[in-house]
Amino acid sequence: MAELAQLIDSEVFLAYATYTTIVLLKMMLMSVITAYFRITTKSFSNPEDTATFGKGENAKKFLRTDPNVERVRRSHLNDLENIVPFIGIGLLYALSGPALSTALLHFRIFLGARIFHTIAYLTPLPQPSRGLSWAAGYAVTISMAYRLLTTALHL
Predict the structure, then answer these.
(1) pLDDT of residue 152
(2) Number of CB atoms found within 10 A of residue 13's CB
(3) Taking the chain (155 residues) in consecutive chunks of 10 residues, what is each chunk's mean pLDDT?
(4) Are the C-beta atoms of 73 and 129 separated by less than 8 Å?
């Protein structure tokens, strides 16, 4: 058990915890951005959400989709699809004892890629900016998984 305590107190684990917290806060911010776009465009998916804007038939016109809301939702979904694997693989990677500089490189590239991906998605910037930022983050997670499978797990 002492070894696990040492791993958790390591600089690599603290870096992992820091970057994971930042990326999770960024993902949580997507919910706030979605709510902002829903309110400003008056585009809701649930009847009870339209009560502020009218009753009965008048409220039904606010039950609609909006391209801007859908764009934010797709960006949020992409976060879920990419950040969750990063958290799991990143934790195992951090506990496997990599060099601090290598771990920081992985964590920083992933965070930067996810932030840029969101900017590219919401602005929207022309492709391939969004695709390249997605690929950079994905490559980081694959790189950590490869290191785990070839070194730490002795496969």
Answers:
(1) 64
(2) 17
(3) 66 96 97 92 83 74 86 95 97 93 98 97 94 98 95 68
(4) no
Query: What does the DSSP 8-state code read for residue 61?
Result: T
CA torsion, points 119, 123, 128, 133, in degrees to nearest 10? 10
pLDDT score at 45 = 85
C-beta separation of 115 from 24 below 8 A: no
- CB < 8 Å & 24+ apart, contacts of 100-107: 100/11, 100/12, 100/15, 103/12, 103/15, 103/16, 104/15, 106/140, 106/143, 106/144, 107/15, 107/16, 107/18, 107/19
What is the reported pTM? Answer: 0.88
Residue 121 and residue 115: Cα distance in Å, rounded?
Answer: 10
